[in-house]
């Protein structure tokens, strides 16, 4: 029996937004670094803590240490530009 690996897809920014929003575990509409770390871990990052820090650096426009709804688009763009994929 031959097993095929799941097909990796480049997600749209909307798919990435949904993935990030799912990781808002406390439901406050913002992502802290720990939530970002888990989101990047779910996307397959080999260094999710580092990637979460970089995501904050690129997307946290008001520098409050959180990614809010207004900043999520910049975060999803950052993830998309760095080649993150999802599997079917």
From TrEMBL:
Residues 11-46 form the EF-hand domain. GO terms for molecular function: calcium ion binding. Transmembrane segments: none annotated. Coiled coil: none annotated. InterPro entries: EF-hand-dom_pair (IPR011992), EF_Hand_1_Ca_BS (IPR018247), EF_hand_dom (IPR002048). Keywords: Calcium. It holds the Pfam family EF-hand_6. This is Putative calcium-binding protein CML10.
């Amino acid at each position: 029996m031959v097993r095929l690996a799941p097909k990796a897809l480049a997600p749209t920014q909307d798919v990435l937004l949904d993935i990030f929003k799912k990781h808002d575990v406390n439901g406050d509409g913002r992502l802290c670094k720990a939530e970002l770390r888990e989101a990047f871990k779910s996307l397959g990052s080999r260094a999710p803590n580092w990637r979460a820090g970089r995501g904050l650096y690129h997307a946290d426009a008001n520098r409050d240490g959180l990614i809010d709804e207004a900043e999520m688009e910049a975060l999803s763009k950052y993830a998309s530009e760095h080649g993150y994929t999802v599997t079917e």
